[in-house]
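Order emerges. For instance:

***
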Amino acid sequence: MTQTRAAQPRIAVLVTLLVALIAAVLTPGRAVAASLQEVTAFGSNPGALKMYRYVPDGLPAGRPVVVALHGCTQNASGYGTGSGWMQLADRWGFSVVLPQQPSANNLSSCFNWFETGDIARGQGEAASLAQMVDRQLADVSGDPGRVYVTGLSAGGAMTSVLMAAYPEKFAAGGVVAGLPYGCAQAAGSPYVCMYVGATQTPKQWGDRVRAARPGYTGPWPVLTVLHGTADYTVRPVNMTDLVEQWTDVHGADQAADVSDSVAGYPHQVFRDAGGRAVVETYGLTGMGHGQPVDPGSGGAQCGTAGAYMLDVNLCAAYRLGLAWGLG
């Protein structure tokens, strides 16, 4: 009799938990959150990278795919959460590929955007990342015409690499505090590129992209750049160089067709001869080196503040998602 009475509270707790779980599953609009998963054997993986992905529960076929590349000292999970991309995947319905750089490849876990063998089509890390895209599209039946790539710092530089070396795979790219394609080679050093920039004309910048995919006639991915004006790790001149590089690739001039402000920050749009927006920039006034986030529950808010995740009342992932028609 004593054992039965002792068991009753435990049974009541178990029943309560079971009822709550059933309610969570059956109540419209509620679901058990998906989790980050590692994917192995996604290809020959010449760059020896790791692949993680986030797929919202019940995601239908034909949805977009976003590749999100972390910065130095970061990892896939932290970047996916901190940047807001996993949050937006649940809100808007798309999957996220989150590559990770092992420290065995780079002591600071930076993607090797400055190594010639990692930025050429069919080689190294660039090839590994392209293989991740193919695997993700196959596994989730994603829309091959709506694949996007973005990243912070070294991840932003690798975004430029993928746009140049594999332009047929990406509709658009978003470079956050990153660098133009071939910058380290043009400057003679990654550090010169980061701190000073490389001396190139728009055509020379564009030629570097065209040489990465010989014979390719387009369409080329469109570009959005977000960069802090007080970034002393990757100088803002790199945003200027990215504009010159990709307006040249798209056959546009370097004069902005739209100059306004978004959330109080300077915003520009560059259009091609047909009037299509091909390059867009956000200059984050006073922001240092990092990913712009705007934590909160508002419709335009996303991300979590932390190291290199800077709360500046503008969420880069949200702005990119809008530009790409995800939301």
Residues 1-32 have pLDDT under 50 and may be disordered. Residues 34 and 57 are 6 Å apart (CA to CA). The first strand starts at residue 37 and ends at 39. DSSP finds eleven helices and twelve strands in the chain.
